[in-house]
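Components:
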Amino acid sequence: MPGIEIKVVIAGHVDHGKSTLVGRLLCDTGQMHADRKEKVEKRCKRDGKRFEFAFLLDAFEEEQDQGITIDAAEIRWNFGGKRFLLIDTPGHREFSKNMATGASKADAAIILLDAGEGIREQFRRHSRILAMLGIENIIVAVNKMDLAAYNARKFAAIKEEAGAFLARLGIPPAAVIPICALHGENLVQKSPKMPWYYGHPLAGALLDMKINKNTGLEPLRFSIQDVYKSGEKRIYAGRVESGVIRKGQELVFLPSGKTTSVKTIEKWHEPGVKTAKHGDCVGVTLAEPLSVERGEVAVGRKRAPAVSNLVRANIFWMGGQPLTAGRGYKFRLAAQEAGCRLVSVENVIDADTFEKMDASEDAIARNNMGDVTLQLDRPLVYDEFSKVAAMGRFVLVDEGRVSGGGIILGDARARLPGREIKDRKVFTERSGVTKEARRKRNGHPGFAIWLTGLPGSGKSTIARELEKKLFEAGVQVYALDGDNIRHGINRDLGYSCADRAENIRRLSELARLFSDAGLAVITAFISPFESDRQKARETIGAENFIEAFVDCPLQVCEKRDPKGLYKKARRGEILNFTGVHAPYERPVRPDITLRTDSIDAAAAVKKLLDFLKRKGKIK
Amino acid sequence: MKRPAPISGETSRLRELENESIYIIREAYRKFKKPALLWSMGKDSCALLWLVRKAFFGRIPFPVVHIDTTYKMPEMIKFRDEKAAQWGLDLVVAKNRAALQAGVSPARGKLKCCAALKTHALRELLKKEKYNALFLAIRRDEEGTRAKERCFSPRDGGFEWDFRDQPPELWGQFQTDHREGAHIRVHPLLHWTEGDVWKYIRQENIPVINLYFAKNGQRYRSLGCLPCTAPINSRAATLDDIISELETIRTSERAGRAQDKAGDYAMQKLRVEGYM
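Structure:
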């Protein structure tokens, strides 16, 4: 018998026959214990009802009394030399979280439909959940064909509608099968009552399914679950979420960036382990003992994951309170955990119509799905779900309760909401006063010096000094910094990622107007993201834009801490502080770099002035 | 250590099961300050103890609890004391002395007896020791309500299982928060079958009580209190015999356990109140 088991979730609308199907499959293949069957027989006889196959799974008194399934049941089933796990799930909307729990581990799905009722709300919701979970092996079973007089046309109509719906979700069914679960028709044996159906019965279709388990070629992700010390030895216990880890291999730990190599792979009672693969829970010892904590992810040199505090994701929300921007959540992915806030909702799928709704409310209600941008209070390691599934799915915890599940679509940074100006030509060349005329009168062209660097690197000090020196040299100059921007034109903005991007956008537009007016303008903002600075360069115009990188190591900046902000951030009083929780992306090609850990502000200003003279910006 | 020859096709499956269990065990140990393991000396909790040692590279870093009803088979108590000494277990034995003195026994009502001598004794112990997580070796294939369990299953301060509203459990992300006085039942073997456990015992050479092996045409398939547990007719005298017997057996594992049959939904009623 093959070792690997195929996990099949049974989904579909209320009363379309999910539990009956599973009960019947077990009985028809002789895999239901006699005493369990007797118990159900007794109960049904007592109530004067026919034998309820569903009761074999719906074990709770409340489930049998109401004829419903409350929670998912998992049952082993062997057929045709293959091993299956059948996951029977509830069809009611209020138990959708239990369906999602059951479906989250599945490799394949059978979605049931009632031939008389056709596509109903929960068919659509379950299908969406399956599509989100990335379950691509789908079989549709059109049930209760007996009540539809085994009508081929009726079946064909449902087949077409269901097939088209699923294809739109990106999960076209491998087979659509007419069945009657109650009478066991087209389950294990082909039914003579539907001679017009040429395909496999359900069990045969399950055998036919091609499940792509891991190939072993995926990039390595070894997630540290805990660190155990025994004497001198430190064992880093974790799970290989993807790929293969080998003795002697070099490892990079993220997000810390520490590197070393695997000394040994440890399993109790199994000496000499040389490799561990996807799914294995092992311990490793390292060539150099590092202080690496739970949550770090060891990876290889190539095919690195994202390390970011912004996540774009598709979420299924199961919480009692809606997912909203106003609340704080916990984000958990593999062994990592971080505080989390909702930045924006890009679109919400309506629960009943399944049309995209207006997402202006920035909230997702219970049992709905949507695409969202999340902001974490520190950068975590992740992959896109489509690339490394185990590192691309997460849960959100609301007040201690797992309340949402999501898959990662990508890094949100590239898609932050910004109100871009598409056609800039409309605004230029409108003035009768030319750029050249302004240059002549001022004695210099307009330009912008964009200072970027960590908090405490010395941007503001340099900006003030430089402004003074340029003014004394007769240059029309003005410095924009936090004080005159944040408290004025941008006082409606906070420190969320969206607001930060908007802050930089407005700043770029201001700098553009100032330099257009023929002035020298100096900006002193952290501006941590390369993409934002790139946009500023485009807005202001590359020929007028000077990116000055105020480069100073984090430790030095933190030691200086002129405004006491690092201390506050370390105490958790400020969230999303660049350098502590949020990343700073070093400029790729700055026009000038000022190493303020080795030169003082005066020297830095001199360097800038020399640079401006060399470039012909000032005399 | 010499291992028996692997059963064809089973090695990778047992490894998958073992990995999932170890992950759950390590996760619970990391998340809960005061866990304990419930040991009945049965095959499942012996396999669980073994998995705990695997997870912690030979150690068992928390107490091992036995709820003693005083009706257990003498072989079980002998096995308990032998292995506790041999493996250096931090063994905690708890009894409901008041109920025993009041004469509670299976003869005066099986469900009442289970509730008093097992559930109540456990509740009192948890109150006293303030354990906030309990490792249990229950499995989904044992019984209908267990088929619907979570790996991390919250019990409130009153010990109740709210099966109507269980927390979602996705991708190995478990419910780990709980209120003061409540606890979480941790079920690392939930996804195993009876056959899996026996195959694993064989593969790993895990010691089990000899009551499981047939003598004079009978063996115990499931162990419990002497008055409420019946042996089955069987010739399975070795691990291999048991494994092949299970391939064809037509009754369920707990068919010999009287409390399961003490009225409709007996197990649900027991379990909602905090039974294992």
